[in-house]
Amino acid sequence: MMTLLTTLISFLSGGLPKLLDFFQDKQDKKHELAMAQIQVQAQMEMQKAGFQSQEHIEEIRTDQISIQTQAAERQSLYAHDIEIGKGASQWVINARAMVRPTITYGLFFLLVAVDIAGVWYAWTMNASFHDMMDLVWDDDTQTIWASVISFWFGTQAFSKK
């Protein structure tokens, strides 16, 4: 039961960032709409009085500069990433892309090695098969393994656009 529960929780945790982004985006848009309405109302009152808000003009300029800076930063990050790959062999590019999967495979093979060593040790101590499996594939190992697999496949399922 615990394994099933952690599997479900791990699978859903892969989509949790998307769900949180959805609610955050909804709140942001609601807030921006309310702020825009307040600003329009204030602008209308200022224009009726014959004043142009210099502060508002400066805010718009500052926002434009900020947006341009963020776009330039993003472009430079992309250019830097491309520049790193220039002149590198395909092997190096592939090695950079394989860092996370290699760590995952390493952890999987470590789990397999520990399980094989546990079975071998139990076998040499003349333990029964049932006892071996209880020692090697216990509830904690099942829970952790189910969580890892569910997180990876849940993340893949939720990251598709």
Summarize the structure.
The protein is mainly alpha-helical and 161 residues long. It has helices at 2-13, 16-49, 54-85, 90-97, 99-124, 129-136, 139-159.
Report on the architecture of this protein.
It is a single chain. With 161 residues, the protein is an all-alpha fold. The chain has two domains: 66 residues, no CATH class; 52 residues, no CATH class. The protein is built from seven helices and no strands.
What's the helix and strand layout?
Blueprint: H1 2-13, H2 16-49, H3 54-85, H4 90-97, H5 99-124, H6 129-136, H7 139-159
Major sheet details: none
Q: Report the average pLDDT across residues.
A: 79
Say what oligomer this is: single chain
Going by helix content, strand content and strand pairing, the class is mainly alpha
Number of helices: 7
Strand share of the residues?
under 5%
Q: What's the N-to-C terminus distance?
A: 32 Å
Helix content: over 70%
Describe the global form: elongated
**How many DSSP-defined strands?**
0
Order of helices and strands: HHHHHHH
Q: What's the domain count?
A: 2
Q: Could you list the spans in which at least 5 consecutive residues all have pLDDT below 50?
A: none
Could you tell me the radius of gyration in angstroms? 28 Å
